[in-house]
Here is the input.
Amino acid sequence: MNTVASRAMEDHSPARDLNRSRVMHDLLESVARDGAESQRARASEFGIALGLVNAYLNYCVKKGLIRVRKIPTKRYAYYLTPKGFAEKSRLAVHLVSNSLQSFRLARQQYVEGFRALSEQGATRVLLVGLSELTDIATLSAAESGVTLIGILAEKDAAHYVGLPVRADIAAFAGGFDAAVITDLTAPAFSHARVSKFLNPERIVLPAILGVQLTQHEAAE
Here is the structure.
């Protein structure tokens, strides 16, 4: 399991726990629909890294939610066990009951973060990470008077919610004076990435992400 995937499976915070539940539910739903679909296709469908799909599949197999069988084309097919079907149903109920609460909490923290940046005089803000939190952050930014200039993500994309998406931070060089972390997979890594360009007070890392920075990291 690669480092980012390992962090995603082990780190715990309200937002990431909910995101894990959603990925788990979508994976179980996908396997129930088509067990022979490639892991690359699933990664594209879910909008996450291939390594993360592998990590979730391995986790589900280990927990007895999915069984795997080799098929003639030298590939593997996955099947839900009875336990897997029960877990898929449980996760569906869990997601419905928790999504609204998490949305409200995240929105409040992003509104407060953008407001703090505005009070510091920050006007051009970079979002770091492409996830459901990106949508919440863009909604929250509209109330603060700051301008979102783009999204730093794992790979380039034309646009998302009207903003350019780039994998190389150099694409935004000199164009931002603050950053807001919206990465659900590895928020601490994303924070470290932009801390090379900004003072800590110009980086918003919402508490809902559950990242505890050391004093050294916070001061960098």
